Amino acid sequence: MSGHPGSFEVISRNASGRATVWRARCGRHRQWDGPTYEAVEDEWRRHVHAETGTMPAPMGDKTGRETPR
User: Fold this and answer.
1) Each residue of 10-36: pLDDT tens digit?
2) Mind listing the pLDDT tens digit for each residue in 31-61?
3) pLDDT for the residue 29
4) In Å, how far are 7, 14, 44, 58, 67 from 51, measured between CA atoms?
5) Which residues, including other chains, have CB under 8 Å from residue 53's CB and lie 6 or more apart?
6) What are phi and psi of 23, to 5 degrees?
7) pLDDT score at 38
8) In which element (H, E) is residue 40 found?
9) Residue of 58, 55, 66, 50 whose CA lies nearest to 1
């Protein structure tokens, strides 16, 4: 999305190495933390939709996710 690039990273892992906190960022302006990649990706996607009127398609697990309009 032009002007609203998303980046996604693991912030915290448990003792077995499983990701427990993910972070999504929209450029340098907004960020969201959550328990899964899909949770933070959806926050970023909603933000892009609110700003541009277009929702990016989900990139992670697509089951039960909001669809682009």
Assistant:
1) 999 999 999 999 999 998 779 999 999
2) 999 999 999 999 999 999 999 999 999 998 8
3) 79
4) 17, 35, 11, 17, 16
5) none
6) -130, 135
7) 94
8) helix 37-52
9) 55
